[in-house]
Automatic annotation (TrEMBL):
Keyword terms, alphabetized: Aminotransferase, Pyridoxal phosphate, Transferase
UniProt superkingdom: Eukaryota
PANTHER family xrefs: TYROSINE AMINOTRANSFERASE
Protein source organism: Dendrobium thyrsiflorum (Pinecone-like raceme dendrobium)
Pfam families in the cross-refs: Aminotran_1_2 (PF00155)
Protein name per UniProt: Aminotransferase class I/classII large domain-containing protein
Length: 346
């Protein structure tokens, strides 16, 4: 179905782009993955994509399985849709991967879908093909779809690889969410998408509901859509290589800077996205009870802004953003270091 406000070539460019990602990584071998233009819905950023997807799948008494630490918009979308959130843990000591048996145990007959964010915000993890396969097998066994938030798709470095979840759509239906906001660094353009990749047709009803919803939802502006085929289908190799090299050096600057601060610990180097999670040993800091205090006092005394982990489900951790010039990151590390030194329990 083609909506009056959706240019045909923007939708087909997204489909072609997604197919090329799946083909490029080579994990769907023997199971050709179909993503046609009719599987793609264009949205106002990934935000509208995730809100539409969750509200279409929602039903009274249902629940979604979300990662913890996570991305707050999923919680909000669940509240709005009137469904329960259940959290599976991303494990810092296991490179922030999840325990598939925990996901399985959390699910029941009312579980609607598993949400997977890869590359991951907030941990910076880029999941291995083995881990993605494990999650797809759980979804197959539970007979539920996977919502794959791949807003950071392609933003990988330091030996990480991006493998689209749709590579495993032969096991379970995958709804892939993406946008121009992060990889092309134009969050203000508000252009995103979701693609329903459903090889055995179990999401027929979901498609029907989606089409009704997308007919009444405002879509992205046609002016932006006109630019999409050029943006997505031109490889722009140099641009992306430069961005990744820059992000990797930013990550390294922050990681090395944090190693010099005793009370802060980052378990593993991020291999994707623009974020890392850092554990705060509050027991060694005077007047700091928890991550919220840490963030507040650090802001007050050093003007360094970090996101308290308790907001995204992990108490006494903070999330740091490293998409900044390296000199600013070094200065932020120096400031965090003097802050911690001043507060350190003798
Ligand atoms: C930024 C972000 C989004 C929202 O993307 P927009 O295209 O800006 O709406 C969704 N999911 C995750 C994990 C994000 O970090």
């Amino acid at each position: 179905m083609i909506f009056y406000h959706c240019l045909q070539n923007a939708g087909s460019a997204v489909a072609e782009y997604l197919r090329s990602l799946v083909k490029g990584c080579g994990y769907s071998r023997g199971h050709p993955v179909q993503i046609r233009e009719s599987d793609v819905y264009l949205t106002v950023g990934a935000t509208q994509a995730l809100q539409s997807t969750l509200s279409v799948l929602a039903s009274a008494g249902g629940n979604f399985l979300l990662p913890r630490p996570g991305f707050s918009l999923y919680d909000s979308a669940c509240v709005l849709a009137g469904v329960e959130c259940r959290y599976y843990d991303l494990l810092p000591a296991c490179r922030w991967e999840a325990d598939p048996s925990q996901i399985r145990d959390l699910a029941d007959s009312r579980t609607l879908a598993i949400v997977v964010i890869n590359p991951n915000n907030p941990s910076g993890a880029a999941f291995s093909s083995h881990h993605l396969l494990q999650i797809a097998e759980v979804a197959r066994d539970l007979n539920i779809p996977i919502i794959a938030d791949e807003v950071y798709g392609g933003i990988v470095f330091g030996g990480g690889r991006f493998i689209p979840m749709a590579s495993f759509a032969y096991l379970a239906p995958v709804i892939t969410i993406g946008s121009l906001s992060k990889r092309w660094m134009v969050p203000g353009w508000r252009f995103g998408w979701f693609a329903i990749c459903d090889s055995n047709g179990s999401l027929q009803e979901v498609r029907k509901a989606t089409e009704i919803l997308m007919n009444i939802n405002p879509g992205p502006s046609s002016v932006i859509q006109a630019a999409v085929p050029t943006i997505l289908l031109d490889a722009n190799v140099e641009f992306h290589e430069n961005v990744l090299a820059l992000l990797e050096s930013c990550m390294e600057t922050l990681f090395v800077g944090l190693e010099k601060i005793d009370v802060l610990e980052c378990y593993s180097r991020p291999q994707g996205s623009m974020f890392m999670m850092v554990e705060v040993d509050t027991s060694r800091l005077l007047g700091i009870e928890n991550d919220m205090d840490f963030a507040k006092e650090l802001m007050k005394e050093e003007s360094v802004l970090v996101l308290p982990g308790s907001i995204i489900g992990l108490k006494n951790w903070v999330r740091l953003f490293f998409g900044l010039p390296t000199d600013l990151l070094s200065e932020a590390c120096d400031r965090m270091r003097s802050f911690c030194k001043r507060r350190m329990v003798k």
